Amino acid sequence: MGLAQYSIALVCIALFTIAILGFAINFNNDNDAAISFSEDSDLMSLSSNANENLSDFRGGAESTYKSIVESSIEQGDTTPSGGAFAITPWSLLSTVKNMIDVGYKKIFGNEGNFGIFLTSLFGMMGLIMVFYIWKAWAGKMPD
Amino acid sequence: MSLYNLPNSTAGLDAIAVQTATAVPSLIPLLLVFVFFVVFLGGIGRQNLRGGSADYPMWSVVASLSTFMVAILMTIVEGLIHVDWLIIITVITIFSGVWLFLDKRASEV
After folding, report:
1. Domain count, chain B
2. How far apart, in whole angstroms, are the C-alpha atoms of residue A59 and residue A44?
3. A40 vs B72, B79, B87: nearest CB
4. A68 vs B85, residue with greater confidence
5. Chain B residues within 8 A (CB-CB) of chain A?
6. What DSSP designation does B79 have?
7. What's the pTM?
8. Does residue B53 form part of some domain?
């Protein structure tokens, strides 16, 4: 996936999360349900954090747009004077991180036993990255 | 002592459901698991038959949302579902959405 697809997917994930949690919270409020999401502070904070992260992303997108519009390339230069363009989806990544944190805590509890999963995942990603570097450097297929 | 007390059937259908769920705590979670897998495996199997391949993340989201809707309706009546199960179903639904949106090929999103 490219950066555009990746960013769009993260925005959709954040909107999906807000939609699901918002629907559930409002359903409970409207119907005066006996079991309410407000009993759980983690999901309520996840909802507000996702809203905040999306708002941060909007601000980042605006500033990136502004830097693109206001940039210029001087004669003889190959790069814009305003610096490299980048719209970093870090605020969106933190949405996904919050989801994983809350989901991990809700399904597996507060103990750190599940940490080995994320450790293994990041270790595997690091290993694949080393394989790619080795492939580019030595020209051999790491199959 | 009897193994299982019959529910009071004069108090209404919801009372029967609540008393059964109270007597058998695993009833509601297993019912929700049943709903999830009926939609998930049914959708995958049918799509496999029709097209030769199946969209697993999409059916995961459809099954999760179906389970979520059933679970959220259960919250109206006290005693049917615990908030823990509701939260776990919500988390699974969100994770299914993450799977769906990150799974799409570049040409689709």
Report:
1. 1
2. 23
3. B87
4. B85
5. 68, 72, 74-79, 81-84, 86-88, 90-95, 97-98, 101-102, 104, 106, 109
6. T
7. 0.75
8. yes
